[in-house]
Amino acid sequence: MADDDLLLGYEKDENELWLWDDLPELHMEVGYRINRLLHFERSAYQEISVAETSAFGRMLVLDGVPQITEKDGYIYNEMISHIGLLTHPNPQYVAMIGGGDCGPAREAARYPDIKRIDVVEIDPRVTDVCQRLFNRSRAAALDPRITIFHEDGARWIQKQRERIDVLLIDRSDPFGPAAVLYSRAFYQHVYSSLSYDGIAVFQSGSPFFDMKGLKTTYHRLQSLFPIVRTYVTSIPSFPGGIWSFTVASKRHDPLAANTDKLPAGTRYMNKAIARSAFALPEYIQDALRT
Amino acid sequence: MADDDLLLGYEKDENELWLWDDLPELHMEVGYRINRLLHFERSAYQEISVAETSAFGRMLVLDGVPQITEKDGYIYNEMISHIGLLTHPNPQYVAMIGGGDCGPAREAARYPDIKRIDVVEIDPRVTDVCQRLFNRSRAAALDPRITIFHEDGARWIQKQRERIDVLLIDRSDPFGPAAVLYSRAFYQHVYSSLSYDGIAVFQSGSPFFDMKGLKTTYHRLQSLFPIVRTYVTSIPSFPGGIWSFTVASKRHDPLAANTDKLPAGTRYMNKAIARSAFALPEYIQDALRT
């Protein structure tokens, strides 16, 4: 792209192109040198680009914020997916809101007994770009059980009544198009959309840099679901590395998940991790108790 | 400091001072805005500075590389210390090489039965600066069981013969003054310095960005010790977040550590973490198998 047409986050510096992930509240910046810019466009919702970095390979960037990368995207995809899928004894209908890159859908597709996998991604351009530039996305799109809906997830969920066995909320940061996926009403709609023993898993942010956000998610879910548990993982391309997910369940406890069901082929998740992810550091336990 | 006297890593930008942690092999940079520069000097060994950041509070910086911070330093200190201290049934003599900030020494001092804690830090200026500017370091220095030796750790260790119960290798990155702490000879000297049932714990780098370094540490230790286990944690101020330590033991297995001995007052470590830290993601397990 020409100098006067740079997307959010990109900067030219002596003929090198850099992407700067700005963390304004922390007064921090993380810069990646871009070896090649594979795609950029402005969609109806956001700026979408795919950049090739040395540190993480191909990186999907929305409005200047790195979302998922070739080298560590599998960690996010496996960690948001398998805990819920292992916890439910027999999931038939699985859905995910956000995640147009289809990474979590591909993880769900590893379970032969799942009959239907719906992906709800508001921006059709994200899906299209990912399918062209990320192998994982292309592979996922080929599974006949997967259907992609280009709709607002917060509206789509209101049409599902007690139907979904496992629902993954693959939401981006709580501003822009994803802000509505953090509202009190949204959590209520999620509850209503789940079957009598349904399970929802939420991306719930950095426990180190945004404990307040995690606590809000946790407490809102506790007011609705009998079983709510936060688990953590390490995602190198996310600020601070440590990242949280929160699982809300109507009936089945993730600590009793049948980890023998874990399909082969994962690169982060294994039976031990499916349990140990719930061993929270003291600073997180302390914060969630209050 | 004046513009023409800037230390490694620091840059002035429109009257703001920034510290840039340069990761050249990854073509990445992480920048911290410095609210206040509390100290800077050039010692006989390195450039030492303490900077106040928004993201992590006070930060000790050596030759431009962030070492330990006020807000997350406890994670490193607790994780390098307690696994070895819990694994040994009755440690009397504990020593640490590196770590002039005395953070790990303070963790060891929480165990009332430990009789002697030696800290070997090559650079007396590091110890002095930390004791003035980090509360943790000051508190540790007051414990009468702690003695600080300003010596080269690689030489000091050769004078200890089968004496040390728990030895912590709190080494910085494998270049500069710490390079010798990664040599084959050093691992042999560590083995010889330990008592008949002694235990050593090594900082062993980022498993994501430097798997080769972790594998080298792991395999060198395996050629000397009957029990070698790698464990991981999440340290937000370290590149990529996920970080590894490797414990090498002559007799006691860390997986059988008596976690009931864990002293009160930790902020990261707890009984569950003392076990779950050994649950390695598949990508690490795979790499260590080969």
Automatic annotation (TrEMBL), chains A, B:
Q: In which pathway does it act?
A: Amine and polyamine biosynthesis; spermidine biosynthesis; spermidine from putrescine: step 1/1
* Domain PABS residue range list: 16-250
Q: GO MF annotations for this entry?
A: spermidine synthase activity
For binding S-methyl-5'-thioadenosine, which residues are annotated in this chain's numbering? 46, 121, 152-153, 177
Catalyzed reactions: S-adenosyl 3-(methylsulfanyl)propylamine + putrescine = S-methyl-5'-thioadenosine + spermidine + H(+)
List the keywords (alphabetical): Polyamine biosynthesis, Spermidine biosynthesis, Transferase
**Catalytic residues, chain numbering:** 170
Q: Please tell me where spermidine binds in this chain.
A: 101
Task: Report the EC code(s) recorded for this entry.
Answer: 2.5.1.16
PROSITE patterns recorded: PABS_2 (PS51006)
- InterPro entries the UniProt entry points to: PABS (IPR030374), SAM-dependent_MTases_sf (IPR029063), Spermi_synthase (IPR001045), Spermidine_synt_N (IPR035246), Spermidine_synt_N_sf (IPR037163)
- Report the top EC class in one word: transferase
Task: Note whether Phosphoprotein occurs among the keywords.
Answer: no
Task: Write down a Pfam family by its short name.
Answer: Spermine_synth
* Complexes and interactors: Homodimer or homotetramer.
| Family assignment from sequence similarity | Belongs to the spermidine/spermine synthase family.
Question: Which NCBIfam families does the entry mention?
Answer: MFS_SpdSyn, PRK00811.1
Please give the function described in this protein's UniProt entry: Catalyzes the irreversible transfer of a propylamine group from the amino donor S-adenosylmethioninamine (decarboxy-AdoMet) to putrescine (1,4-diaminobutane) to yield spermidine.
Q: Report the protein name in the record.
A: Polyamine aminopropyltransferase
Annotated organism of origin: Paenibacillus oenotherae
